[in-house]
Structures are given as C-alpha cells and as structure tokens.
Amino acid sequence: MYPVYTVVISFHSPKHSTSEQAVPVGENLHSSEPEYCLGKESTVPNENSNSINSSNPATIQVQKSSFRKTRTGKVYKCEICNKHFSSHHNRKQHMFIHTGEKAFSCDKCDLRFAQKGNLKQHYRIHTGEKPYKCTLCSKVFSQHSNLMGHKRSHSGEKPYGCVICNKQFSGRGYLKQHYRIHTGEKPFKCDICFKNFRRKGDLNCHKRIHTCDNPIKCETCLKVFPRIADLVRHMRCHTGEKPYECDVCLKKFSANGNLKEHYRMHTGEKPYVCDICNRSFFRSGECSRHRRKHFIQKSN
User: What pTM does this model have?
Assistant: First the structure.
C-alpha cells in the first residue's frame, strides 16, 4: 500500500487561533465518497490549488497515510494486480508482464523482452560490460543483484534457508537451484540429445559435446566430455582408482558425489522428497523413478 498524503492546516490570527485540523486530501465534506480513488487516474489537490486559500497565513504539513503523490498529482493503477505507478508510461511498461507481450528485441541474438531495462541488462552479454565492481576484491559483474550476492561470500552471510533440509545459501538463485535436488526437477533440456539438467550452466557445458570443434575425448572408450574435470573423473572407471573413502566403514569410491550419497546411509539423511506423496529418498535417481510411478498410475 502506497502512502496517502493528508494536509494539516494551522491558521494563525492576531485575534484568535483555531486548533489544528487533519483534513483528508480530496475529501468532499458533503459526501461519504472521496473525490478520487486509487482505482483510476486522479488529481491530488496541492497548496497552490483553489481548494486551499493561500491568502491566509497557514502552515502546511504533509503527512503519510495511504496515497502516493506525484509531481503531476496523478496516479496510475494496474487494474489486474492493483499496483500503482507515477506515470502512464510506467504503467504501460508494466502491462507487458500481464499480456506476455515482448516489445523490446535484441538486435544481436533476436531475444525479446517485456521491459526495456531487461533488454539493457541482457545487452551486456554481447558487449561484455560489467559496471558493478566489488570494492573488496575488484571482481566485476554485469548485474547489481549478482554483485550483492557476491558480497555475501566475503561476509559469510547466508540469509536464504531451505525449509526441507535447513541448508543455508547466500543467494536466492542458489536456493532455487538447491530445491531441485529435493524435487528432482530438471527444467533445462538439450535440444540435440534431449538430456535434462538441473542447472542452466550444466546444460551450456553439456552442449559443448555437440558443438565443440576440439571435444575432450576419452582415448580408451572415445566418450566425449564438456570439461577436463569430467574426463578425469571418468578415467577412474578404466583405472579403478577410488580416492574417496568413507570415514565410517572405510568403503572407497571413485567420485566424491558417490561418497556423499553413501554417507547418507550412515546418517539416515534423505534429502530428495517426492512433491506428490512426501516420501523421501537417499538418491535423486530413486526419487525421480518414484515420481514416474505416480504419473503412470494417473494415466491408467
């Protein structure tokens, strides 16, 4: 709710003084309805209008209530979500969110945006511009929100907590990505091989397998990988190397992720939760297979 301005007028006369009165702005004293409402474009009286006699010595105080006053004295309301704007242009821009219209297009990659500010922000991908700089480590960012999230890496602040496992994160985006571990959601799909990924970065990295001129390839089985780290991890399948050891039962694993999954057998932690029946699982794959059973049952 935006603040409404009321005018408190104190009249001072040599002969007598009246007590201070709070007069609601725009209120018709002969009617129970206000002269304007927030639902439409409206005009707010000011001290220069005829509604106040400026010839009398008066002290004007503006107090906040529930109305936004603009330079023109007008407010513009979205009739869909009741959000208020200070100009018709701003309201028009906002309406694109509801209509789905994307009037602003990038002349570099044909992507379209509903807001001009989003296009400007996107354009930095092509220009490489990073105007936001960390004062502690001089790292630069293309978005202000990314800078604010980065600063928490210096302070150690983690204000975003998972309601399922209570793990804390420094950014809202990290928490959103983490939730997909519990739900098994993988919204990013490769348009070439249709493999799904939990994070967009993983998808982009995977696409190098299809597009890279010099792919990272295993010389033993010719399997292709997007990163050298993935190849190093894969090579352990051929060498039999298992550098990760459980400190409880001393069992060894070739990948750190496999050790983490195994460790849950000792702790009893089941972080992957079915969003349909709330059943929990040790592994993401188990949760995904279980969720498919619900859809199969519904189809039958």
Answer: 0.42
